[in-house]
Amino acid sequence: MRAHPAGPRHGDVSTSPAIPIAPIDAVQLGELAAEVWPITAQRSLKGVMHVGGVDVRDLAAEYQTPLFVWDLDYFRSRLAAFATAFADAGPGPTVFYAAKAFLAGLAVREVSAAGLGIDVCTGGELTLALRAGADPANLMFHGNNKSASELTQALDAGVGRFVIDSFEELVRLAALAEDRGVKARVLIRVTVGVEAHTHEFIATAHEDQKFGFSLAGGAAAEAVRRVLGLDSLELVGLHSHIGSQIFDADGFEVAAHRVVELLADVRDEHGVELAELDLGGGMGIAYVSDDDPLQIEDLAGRLRVIVERETASRGLTVPRILVEPGRAIVGPTMVTLYEVGTVKPIDLGGGHSRTYISVDGGMSDNIRTALYDADYTVTLASRAPTVPATLARVVGKHCESGDIVVRDAWLPADVVPSDLLAVAATGAYCRAMASTYNLVPRPAVVAVSAGTTRLVLRRESVDDLLALDVELFPGPDAS
Ligand SMILES: Cc1ncc(COP(=O)(O)O)c(C=O)c1O
Known about the structure:
There is one protein chain. The protein has about 475 residues and is α/β, with parallel strands linked by helices. Helices cover about 25% and strands about 25% of the residues. It is globular, with a radius of gyration of 24 Å. Pyridoxal-5'-phosphate binds next to helix 11.
């Protein structure tokens, strides 16, 4: 297992570097594996890919490429599946959509309409959620360095939960809440010494990372003590987030065991039983056919059993279980459409070759391959594959040799410029992490549903980017 060097928490694991097995024929090459592609993705009789009932060639013509195509019905069904799987008898949501995975006004409205809350972690995400009409009571404010102005904005808006991440924040929030005569509802983020990715997890006694209060070091217990001593803060629960792209419940089990021990200590020391246990996000999805994440209902069932068992063994009342999935809700619901620009066969020697297929986007719209060595599934979308496959590498247009979208893929040997490729499962951490590197404007996002399209985020233009350049456009306050 290799975590991203910038830190394991947001890092995915380098999955198997093995080259995928070659398809047996052009028919298999054109198949859209149900576990990877959105539910409405299918090929027409002529072999052209449609998503949400819309021909990808029409999408490319109307909105240009690269383009994020968002299967809105699939998004709605995943929201509903999470809401149902984690439903309980308590008031308010138990599922908080992690906005960092993908955020737009329409996402906020859809999430809210489905009865979920939203996890935001900056003033920017908070502002968007509020402007799009999210109920502030259903917002959970995360982040390891929330500024006084962000906390003020959140308090003034009436945000329902603050996940406290440091002693400085604890003091800052308490003072700001006191000034306003309000009581902020808080959870304490506990680092439990579990780092989980796919089927692997590591359980350690301590945590070497920036988030939360260490359980083993006693900081978490101290944070509880301090919050309970402050009139302007109301401690509603504990929080733990153990990693990302997790396929099974084993890591959650260890984490839950450790957090429940703290819940029991809090009861024993302070006579308080906390009402909420937030197990964070990190639920995995299939990027390639070999990926086998737990189904949402199975995962919810496993988590419930684990928490009930752990709390029963300590004689505690079962708390409400909250979760914050981002990737597992939005990830599978988008595909990225690219247009091929160049095709370059490279002789690797020993009778091997690889075809470099350059598309009109790259690491600016999908940094995950370069950053995490992420795997993706790609297909020829604008026509049916009719010839045998060749081993290809789909690369972007940026000035980096690491600008790779799909490292190893089997694509028809006759792919040519102007063909459209579609990459699956790009809903999470792609548009959200997009950059304007090389002054490449960020792509549009268009929602598709039952044969109709709806622009969600318009394509950035070069003029949008240049507008920030004071040398070119001196504003009123430029000196
Ligand atoms: C605290 C917290 N909650 C939720 C998430 C969402 O994770 P995912 O999109 O993997 O579900 C993250 C992601 O980094 C996180 O840090």
